[in-house]
């Protein structure tokens, strides 16, 4: 009696054999190179013991899958698309893909900070007609200079990806790090001191958003999505930023009020923005306010899009599924009953 598993995207020749070659599994895979159709997913989930989904799939599959469902595995580090309460209630195990994408997303965060500060949006658009002048397209410098030796990085959310981003900023001369964290977790100055020593910075402190906005030369949005962080970067935050600062969002579009950010860029409250995630994605038209905003680089959610990282994520998602199906350890299981 084989266990049925449903996989909402083909995970490619490096990873699919982990599932397809397993004689105990009956594997059903969405057959197209497009977002898995919801109706197809619900139909095929019937009788399934395991389901492997992407961020694009709202993982509320319980009624369709019924009591046979043992495990849901998502190929993403974020899990705001999953109903954790319901999973816990039904004793369905849940796997996700932390760690394997940390470096790729930290790399992209640095890239966007540089692209926003150097205004690559407008300079690439204009280059055939570019006319040089001493201060044409000059913006802030990410690394320290002799006239401007202090750099402060601000992080909204200070988990693995934020810390990997900080590690990359230290060689640019960043010696000051401010972060804002979930208000329900208590402040821990001793842990902050240990992190300051680990990353080799002079200052590392948890602060309120107002101080983070006004003191940072670059703000990285790296907290989870969901209702608790909805529009945490709003008009008030943006108005408080330095006019020379840049904002980078490589987390979730819902953390930033897009209309307020577009207005801020048009009016110069901050210098530029680098955005890998937009509220309402993937349906972002060419007339979206952020696509039209000056000095705003917009990417289509490619933070983890390197070959090695995506193979790592897909492998981890497949191994999470297998662990959950056979009652074994899952390499990255989320404790849903917290
Ligand atoms: C990407 O956004 C992820 O959650 O993996
Ligand atoms: C994800 O949420 C992380 O910081 O790794």
Describe this structure in words.
Helix 5 (102-117) packs across helix 7 (160-169). This protein has 13 helices and twelve strands. It has 338 residues and is α/β, with parallel strands linked by helices. It has helices at residues 16-20, 38-45, 62-65, 84-89, 102-117, 120-126, 160-169, 189-199, 209-215, 235-240, 258-267, 289-292, 307-325, and strands at 3-7, 25-29, 50-53, 71-74, 93-95, 152-156, 176-180, 203-206, 218-221, 246-249, 272-275, 296-298. The protein folds into two domains: 3-99 and 307-325, NAD(P)-binding Rossmann-like Domain (Rossmann fold, 3-Layer(aba) Sandwich), CATH 3.40.50; 102-298, 3-Layer(aba) Sandwich (Rossmann fold). The longest helix has 19 residues, at 307-325. The model has no long low-confidence stretch (mean pLDDT 96). It starts with a strand and ends in a 13-residue tail after the last helix. Bound molecules: glyoxylic acid (2 copies). The site of one glyoxylic acid has 7 residues, from helix 7. One glyoxylic acid is lined by residues 55, 76-78, 101, 303-304.
């Amino acid at each position: 009696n084989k266990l049925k598993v449903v996989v909402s995207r083909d995970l490619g020749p490096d990873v699919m054999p982990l599932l397809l070659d397993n004689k105990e599994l009956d594997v059903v895979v969405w057959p197209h190179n497009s977002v898995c159709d919801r109706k197809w997913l619900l139909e095929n989930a019937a009788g399934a013991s395991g389901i492997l989904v992407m961020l694009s799939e709202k993982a509320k599959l319980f009624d369709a899958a019924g009591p046979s469902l043992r495990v849901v595995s998502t190929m993403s580090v974020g899990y705001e698309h999953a109903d954790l309460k319901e999973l816990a209630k039904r004793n369905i195990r849940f796997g996700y893909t932390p760690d394997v994408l940390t470096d790729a997303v930290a790399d992209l965060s640095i890239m966007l900070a540089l692209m926003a500060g150097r205004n690559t949006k407008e300079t690439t658009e204009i280059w055939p007609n570019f006319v040089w002048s001493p201060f044409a397209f000059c913006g802030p410098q990410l690394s320290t200079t002799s006239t401007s030796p202090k750099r402060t990085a601000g992080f909204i959310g200070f988990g693995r990806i934020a810390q990997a981003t900080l590690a990359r900023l230290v060689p640019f001369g960043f010696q000051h790090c401010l972060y804002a964290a979930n208000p329900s977790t208590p402040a821990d100055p001793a842990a902050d001191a240990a992190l300051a020593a680990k990353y080799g910075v002079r200052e590392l402190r948890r602060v309120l958003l107002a101080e983070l906005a006004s003191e940072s030369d670059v703000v990285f949005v790296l907290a989870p999505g969901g209702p608790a962080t909805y529009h945490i970067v709003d008009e008030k935050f943006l108005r408080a930023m330095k006019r020379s600062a840049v904002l980078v969002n490589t987390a979730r579009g819902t953390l930033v009020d897009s209309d307020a950010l577009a207005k801020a860029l048009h009016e110069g409250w901050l210098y530029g923005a680098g955005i890998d995630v937009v509220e309402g994605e993937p349906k972002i038209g060419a007339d979206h306010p952020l696509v039209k905003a000056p000095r705003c680089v917009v990417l289509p959610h490619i933070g983890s899009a390197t070959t090695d990282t995506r193979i790592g994520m897909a492998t981890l998602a497949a191994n999470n599924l297998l662990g959950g199906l056979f009652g074994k350890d899952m390499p990255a299981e989320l404790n849903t009953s917290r």
